[in-house]
Amino acid sequence: MSDSSRLPPLTALRAFEAASRHLSFAKAAQELFVTPAALSFQIKSLEEHLGVTLFRRLNRAVELTEPGRALQPGLAAAFREMHEAVRAVERMKEGAPLTVTAGPAFTAKWLAPRFFRFAEAHPEIELRFVASLKIMDFDRDGIDVAVRYTPRPDDTAYCELMIDEWVIPAAAPAVAERIATPADILHETLLHDDSINHLRPAMTWAVWLRAAGLAPGAEAERGSRFSSADHAIDAAVEGAGVILARASLIERDLAAGRLVTPLPMGLMTPGKYYFLCRKGAEAEPRIETFLDWMREEVASIAAMGTRFDLRPFPD
């Protein structure tokens, strides 16, 4: 009979959690860097401590018994919380890098070019960028801050609107000289940023041209297509055509004269850029410093918008 006031050994609980997750003693042993025999011994000792059978041993597999199914959820949650607590403490160590994830285009066109300003102002904070469109887990993936372009804020995390984004036609100066009306755009090579086709409604040339008073057909779909926004922008800078670009991603190219907006009409997009971190983490000194810096940096995009005719994105 087990002593209800005494918890089983942690090694036995850890062995059960891994085996119940994999439903394989061999895979669990491999994860924990022990032999299958050692793992089987730990689970046997746990069963003896609890006075119940936790697994049915089959020929080539195992399955949880009713007591095993009752134990598994709470134990899995407990180990997750322990891992998360340890990671939270590790992130608080002095000198630990601040890990920021954002999409590849936003990292290349907005974050990275401004990094030197943050580094000069805050040399005590080391930044680490993870450029990815994958939705990462703050604890599992060791992420401190995420900057995401999405139509909906995330209520499971601290979430603050950074950029109310819009799109506008842009081209290299030599190409822009040929564009005086919306109809002129159809005589140029259209550059398409397919990385945001998942948004609804979609942000396409056809939508912008209709908002400009035209009724485009198949010609709005021709041109060159890019799976990454920064590649499409680079093509526009080189004079390859005209792009319907997100303002945040072309701000520096516009300021430097590499791109020109030949027509003033822009469309607000269904997606916006949000700053995200774990709830409560926004008050941690490193994250609060980075958030304050971002608030200052994005102000120029809002100011830039006052120069254009920005219209709601059509439903």
Report on this model:
The longest helix has 26 residues, at 66-91. This protein is an alpha/beta fold. α1 (10-22) crosses α3 (36-50). The strands form 3 sheets. It has a 6-stranded mixed beta sheet with strand order 9-8-10-7-11-13, sandwiched between helices. The protein has helices at residues 10-22, 25-32, 36-50, 66-91, 104-121, 173-176, 182-185, 205-211, 229-237, 247-256, 285-305, and strands spanning 55-57, 62-64, 98-102, 127-131, 145-150, 158-163, 166-170, 190-193, 224-226, 242-246, 265-268, 272-277, 309-311. The chain starts with 9 loop residues before the first helix and ends with a strand. The model has no long low-confidence stretch (mean pLDDT 90). It contains 11 helices and 13 strands. It folds into 3 domains: 10-91, Winged helix-like DNA-binding domain superfamily/Winged helix DNA-binding domain (Arc Repressor Mutant, subunit A, Orthogonal Bundle), CATH 1.10.10.10; 98-163 and 272-299, Periplasmic binding protein-like II (D-Maltodextrin-Binding Protein, domain 2, 3-Layer(aba) Sandwich), CATH 3.40.190; 166-269 and 304-311, D-Maltodextrin-Binding Protein, domain 2 (3-Layer(aba) Sandwich). Pfam families: HTH_1, LysR_substrate. Residues 8-65 form the HTH lysR-type domain. Belongs to the LysR transcriptional regulatory family. GO terms for molecular function: DNA-binding transcription factor activity; sequence-specific DNA binding. Keywords: DNA-binding, Transcription, Transcription regulation.
